[in-house]
Amino acid sequence: MRRLLLCLFLIAGPIAGFSQSAPTHPDWRTVLEDEIPLLGHRNWILIVDSAYPLQSSPGVETVETDAPQVEVLRQVLGAIDRSIHLRPDIFLDKELAFVAEEDASGVSAYRRELQAILGGYGIESVPHEQMIGRVDEAGKTMHVLILKSRMAVPYSSVFIRLNCRYWSDDAEKRMRSRMAKGEPADH
């Protein structure tokens, strides 16, 4: 009988401990720091509001941050700015400029805070559905990291398409022009 009880205890102990442990989710800061060195031009990082849809393209990864959106945005921009290879192309939902305070409490303060954070960056406003389509398309061949925040303001997502820090858009245009003309660069 003693052996039977001991066996039951040895089997039940780990099972009981296993059933009480909560599932673990990856820490978004760790995911960001781990992925930044791997990401390059044409990859995306999105910092989205709590109602942003879960996208299912194969390259799209969604991580719940349970953090304020501006905190996540600052962390992402800091990681990009510290990298040697990335620069951000930033897109906002065009609708954000038209959301009224009486319809979405806090939107005015959010726009001011967003302007303070993004003031030094170039920003393009694009309709929300177009942005979701761009992300869906990119996720078919490229990696997209979506960091979902606690934000509860509509059309507040920030879409960052990553670009190459050490190769400018102007340099790309000049090179493509030389290629079209068949004129190699001077050596």
Describe this structure in words.
With about 190 residues, the protein is α/β, with parallel strands linked by helices. It has a single domain, classed as RbsD-like fold. It is built from six helices and six strands. It has a six-stranded mixed beta sheet. Strand 3 (about 85-95), helix 4 and strand 4 (about 125) form a beta-alpha-beta unit. The protein is globular, with a radius of gyration of 23 Å. The model has no long low-confidence stretch (mean pLDDT about 90).
Offer a few descriptive terms:
single chain, 187 residues, alpha/beta, RbsD-like fold, six-stranded mixed sheet, 6 strands, globular
Count the E strands.
Answer: 6
Q: Mean of residue pLDDT?
A: 90
Poorly predicted regions are none
Distance N to C terminus:
87 Å
CATH topology: RbsD-like fold
Q: Spatial order of the strands in the main sheet? A: 2-5-1-6-3-4
CATH class type:
Alpha Beta
Tally of discrete structural domains: 1
CATH architecture field: 3-Layer(aba) Sandwich
Largest sheet: 6 strands, mixed
Count of helical regions: 6
Strand residue content:
15-25%
Helices and strands, with pairings:
Elements lengths: L1 H19 L7 H8 L8 E5 L11 E5 L4 H14 L3 E8 L13 H12 L4 E4 L1 H11 L5 E5 L9 E7 L4 H13 L6
Parallel strand pairs: 1-5, 2-5, 3-4
Antiparallel strand pairs: 1-6, 3-6
